[in-house]
Amino acid sequence: MTQTGSDLGLWRSIRLLLVWLVITLASPVLASSAPWQQLRPVGQGEMSWLWFKLYDATFYSHSGRYQPGDYPQALTLTYARAIARQDLLSATADEWQRLKLGSEAQRQQWLQQLAGFWPDVAAGDRLTFYIDAEGKGHFWWQDKPLGTLADPQFSAAFLAIWLADNSRDPALTRRLRGQS
Description:
The chain is 41% helix and 24% strand. It is α+β, with helices and mostly antiparallel strands. The protein has a 6-stranded antiparallel β-sheet. The longest helix is centred in the N-terminal third of the chain and has 27 residues, at 5-31. The chain starts with a helix and ends with a helix. Residues 16-32 have low confidence and may be disordered.
């Protein structure tokens, strides 16, 4: 049996359609991959309180070096114990106030937004904060999008909890910055 020109054209069309379907069906999977996975680790460390390990932290940047405000950047926290959402919010508020970051009104607005999507965390849970090239902050929980705050001032203030010169744990800050 010989194929005519129209048969070959039909097979080419079917192949093109199949290729298009594969690309189209695969694109949501590719689009949902975690954006910080394209970044390079800068440093990592552990946060403890008294004798209790709270979490492991890893900081990432596009260059593999710490450069404040040079986005994209990401911070991943892998929790060693359960912490209630309200305790996470309170600790965040305390650190912003201690570091004198944002106005009282800004801090309250940020906390209200975080309260809308932050979960309680359990041992083994992973929370990642990714700052895109425009400075927007995106939270991911277990590699799934959790919520976004588009305010670049928020992004800088949130990272400052771990990376500021006067952070609560200067040794962890140095490790995250890749300085020790």
